[in-house]
């Protein structure tokens, strides 16, 4: 019998589980933690590459570039919040 219901909360995930599904829950949480840590690492690499690209732009283009980056990050956050 699979997980009967999954409740998403702000932090972590709450499951309504029957007996043997505790293993399922642990695997799910481990998987989410792994994905989250990879995302954090990716953002750090992104920051470094953004700084390198910024150095070559004129002030006007820098502002435009940052606005584009901000929009892309906002989009990704929206997808992450509604995605799972």
Give a brief description:
This protein is mainly α and 84 residues long.
Element-by-element helix/strand order: EEHH
Coarse shape:
elongated
Question: Roughly what percent helix?
Answer: 55-70%
Number of strands: 2
**Whole-number average pLDDT?**
68
Low-confidence stretches: 7-11
First and last CA, distance: 21 Å
Count of domains: 1
Sheet having the most strands:
2 strands, antiparallel
Textual characterization of the structure:
The chain is 69% helix and 10% strand. With 84 residues, the chain is mainly alpha-helical. A two-stranded antiparallel sheet has the order 1-2. The longest helix has 33 residues, at 22-54. It is elongated.
Main attributes of the structure:
84 residues, mainly alpha, two-stranded antiparallel ribbon, 2 helices, 2 strands
Q: What does the secondary structure layout of this molecule look like, with pairings?
A:
Layout: E1 5-8, E2 13-16, H1 22-54, H2 59-83
Antiparallel strand pairs: 1-2
């Amino acid at each position: 019998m699979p997980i009967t219901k999954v409740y998403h909360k702000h932090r972590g995930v709450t499951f309504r589980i029957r007996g043997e599904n505790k293993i399922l829950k642990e695997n799910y949480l481990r998987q989410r933690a792994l994905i989250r840590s990879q995302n954090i690492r990716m953002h750090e690499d992104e920051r470094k590459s953004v700084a390198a690209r910024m150095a070559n732009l004129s002030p006007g283009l820098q502002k435009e570039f940052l606005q584009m980056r901000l929009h892309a990050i906002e989009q990704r956050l929206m997808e992450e919040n509604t995605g799972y």
